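ZP: hey, is the magnesium ion complex queued? I don't see it on the tracker
AM: it wasn't, my bad. submitting now with these inputs:
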Amino acid sequence: MVRRERKRWEDIAVEQIGRREARTAFYRDSAPKMTLNGVWNFLYLEAPELSPEGFMNKEISKEGWDQIDVPSVWQLRGYDHMHYTDVLYLFPVNPPFVPTENPTGIYKKTIVLDENWIKNDTILKFHGVDSAFDVWVNGVHAGYSKVSRLPSEFDITELVKEGENDITVRVYKWSDGTYLEDQDMWWMSGIFRDVELINEPKNSILDCAVEGTLDDSYKNGILNVSVKTKHNVTLTWKLEKDGQIIAEGECRTEEKKANWSENVGEIRPWTAETPELYVLTVSAGEHEVQVRTGFRRIEIIDNNFRVNNTVILLNGVNHHDYNPKEGRCVTYEQTKADIVLMKQHNINAVRCSHYPANEYLYDLCDEYGLYVIDEADLECHGFEWTGNYKWITDDPEWEKSYVDRSVRMVKRDRNHPCIIMWSMGNESSFGHNFRSAAEAIRELDDTRLVHYEGDFEAEVSDVYSTMYTRLKPLKEIAEYKIKGDKPHVMCEYGHAMGNGPGGLKEHQELFRKYKRLQGGFIWEWYDHGIYTEENGYEYYRYGGNYGDFPTNGNFCIDGLLMPDRTPSPALAEYKQVIAPVEVTKVPGKYREIQLKNYYDFRNLSHLELRWWIQAEDQTVQEGRITELAAKPQEAQKIQIPYVPFEAEKNVDYYLNISICEKEKTLYASAGHEIVRAQFPMEIHSEVLEERPQGEALKVTEKEGILTVQNEKITVQFHSVFGKLLSVSADGREFLTAGPEMSVYRATIDNDMYKKEDWMNKYFIQKPCEQTEYFRYHEKEDCVTVEIGKYFGCYNQSWGFICDYEYRVYSCGQVKVTLNAKTVQNGKEEPEFLPRIGVQMKGNRELQNAMWYGRGFGENYVDSKEAAFMGIYKSGVDGMMTNYVYPQENGHREDVKWFSIGDGKNAMLCMMEAPLGLNLSNYTDESLEKAGHAWQMEKAENVIIHLDYKHSGLGSNSCGEEQIERAKVKRQDFSMAFTLQMIEAGTEKETAKKKYLD
Ligand code: GAL
Ligand code: MG
């Protein structure tokens, strides 16, 4: 007995019913189109079997039906529920069967077709429906299709009539296809891409495959075209560039097919740097279509992949379809904004992770110039957790489904010059069905490379692709010590979850150094948070926030762009690291710099160099150099013609260089900056003066409180607890708690694998300072308080022996020095610490911050390429990066002084040697605790962290840990800084005064 019949949406033998063969998306098509986007009638059901009788008929009563927007995902229109998992299926792994409870949406729309329309054929095209669907037209079944992120077309000519026509679509959330669509993303369903009708002429061109390649000189274009028509016709064609005809011809189809090949002479080749497009127009009389093509050739020569005979480096990003309000439903405008933003950030490649994007993404990449890895809509990651990862991947019964996903992608997208690799999918192990898919791809198109990361041995993949490979094995790959000699790409690295990634520079250095490594793609472009307004708060939800279980929580908040499209600091870092021009100082030559050209095809003549000498925050000289010429991969030396000058006392000077576009480009205005560099100048003149004297200081002691005071300043210490309690001036408290050691930071996502040990074994968030001694010496103009402390955390045998020295000067300055020696009397301790520094508290009214150090944006030791020394101003809140999932943020490195003020007065803090700074209105504890920004509790004080060292970010939420230099090891340290209460506005001049001790 058969226990269970396969339902249609569980039948892997049925790829489709009545669906047309996949074909290209024409760039222009003379066939009229009618959009079916808009409001449809909608009936939501818990299972397809519950469909009302006759639902496919026009006459069915719509009572109880709702309305829904097409396109949209129904979970964001109030049906079903939102659920996020990275790997897990939300049902037993029992392929091809899916749950009986199978959320279903019936969509209905009436359309009116006129007499003219009816004379031609009618094609109904769905650009994307998740996950499988049936279509009826005027009550008659028109077809069935699956694969969520590929189009399905049905010829409904025989089913439509003049006047009103009824279209019914029944969409199934779960289908056998779902087993192949287990990408790391929200589970969302419905008609989520455009729907349209095409009014196709009787003598139409059905498909046109255009290949623009190059002859062996790489100069002349060869155009290979094959066309399919509905009937035999005479075709005329022309190839144009900017309106000029380059080639043209005529031919007759035989068996409804025509092929031609033409050497079109010298052309301007397509590359991502030079996106030169040509337009092919093919006409069959009453039907005319256009395809844009570019001439370029992709090959593997000497173990490298090359575009037009040049080895290229991919500086890419992984791109998912995502919109904070609409889920997986995106628009042309949004996609265009993405592409423009990528180009503005020096990105030259996109991987469509992990499914084909909307058709227009490829048009945009052709036009703006981005290399694309197009990826089939295929992932069965959940099988990995069953211990039988190959289950369906190696099962020939599933072969057709695997092949279909690649073949339809290739047939749709092959005309796009931007696509350089076909990826067969993601995270689905390897086996028979991928071998077949690779073969099928090559049969259709052997002009691109085949990619699949899951082909771990690179058996059929043309490139050896890995993800999140640590630097050490990456270097071994680079040296051909691992897996043969195919060229390597990192299809994912630099996991941009929360604060991070750090260490991008080290990756880029390897990519640039080793021939085998041809770059990589950051994971990923967006944070997939879902916009929510609730109780007066606006925020972004992630997994678990809908009560969804099991979930991977905020693992979907892992992009370079925040959900509201705010670029994260990591995007600025990435831009700088991958910039096609590298600016370095020529050692020993004080005015000479070098520009290295990392473009693969362009020289630097389209760029200009702007330079200026910056005296902390003043520009003292500037100029521009417009003759840049270095050829690809070559370097050019440049003299910066500044006039020697005398340094003002106690001022730092920097030579700043900015490389900019001379002219407006498609994606940026004239003057758009490609890269910036800064070089400190060695012309510092330090002048120390005698410290001015104020009224004699008085010392009083009462109940453990030691007060040092004159008319300028009041400083209080606790002699029992051994700490600085407060610093006041003019009756107002500026510092409300003095320095105490801190080795903890609010856990960042990239610390997730450290957190357990750090917080539950080493208790770094539970510090304790014990007083060892307290003594003071009085002099008329300086009272020195010395405090000995032992610092440690709960139950730890490691700690620090701290000597604090406070000098209160009669002029009102307070100099703080901390010398600490580290001790370990046991064995156990963390491999490294988030930070070593002190925490202080400032009066909460002091909200105007200013600092001389790296900025403007937040920066960390392994992510500070795009942060330059300068004097910056901001509100305290403006220094924070508001990550969707609260965590340590807003750090600034190399700070020489900072101030916090209220517009009238300020507390200035000047470092003896640069320190790391965090200023925040939130405590570390409240950042740690909160799941969303609105849950963060405002602190009663401005929280000030001064760090001797602060660990880097790394990318360990998925990938490389902090690199060694970015790990703060337990160590002896010293730090010193001077506090001074001043009038607001005098920060810079006050900070320039240096005193003899
Ligand atoms: C990769 C996967 C991505 C994503 C990422 C983690 O393994 O291919 O889809 O899950 O990890 O964010
Ligand atoms: Mg996955």
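AM: back. Residues 309-529+555-576 form a domain with the TIM Barrel fold (CATH 3.20.20.80).
ZP: great, adding it to the tracker
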